[in-house]
């Protein structure tokens, strides 16, 4: 079956995926996979923790021509991963959790798809980070009754639920 004809294809608006989010194996096979989705999600996590865009890294050296994942892999190989963290996230009493979040993101974007976690494993890792702060599990989350009429935000922290 042609990957363009499947629901798994990332063919959108005339292009296959967005640069910086597409897993390396996709460019060879043109087959979207769950591990490719993990890679894309990991890129989004990296954007959140670094404050950088997937295809433009302002903190990278001027001569660096790669994307966010390549920059992260380069920093990791030099044991400089903490240099990637957005400074606005640091010094607020959650530095260890921010670094753990970064490590989860790094696991999602390893070059070899077989070495990436499943999306469920990513969920478990992120949930474990949040449990220290009493983030709830799915059956305790409250969702709006009519998502068409509101922003659709999930309230997941017990503390926030207690305040309301």
From TrEMBL:
Ranges for domain Protein kinase come to: 1-136
Q: How does it sit in the membrane?
A: Single-pass type I membrane protein
Record's subcellular location: Membrane
- Quote any Pfam family the record assigns: Pkinase
* One Gene Ontology CC term in the entry: membrane
A molecular function GO annotation: ATP binding
Per the annotation, which location comes first and is thus the protein's main one? Answer: membrane
InterPro entries, A to Z: Kinase-like_dom_sf (IPR011009), LRR_Rcpt-Like_S/T_Kinase (IPR051824), Prot_kinase_dom (IPR000719)
Name assigned to this protein: Protein kinase domain-containing protein
Native organism: Rosa chinensis (China rose)
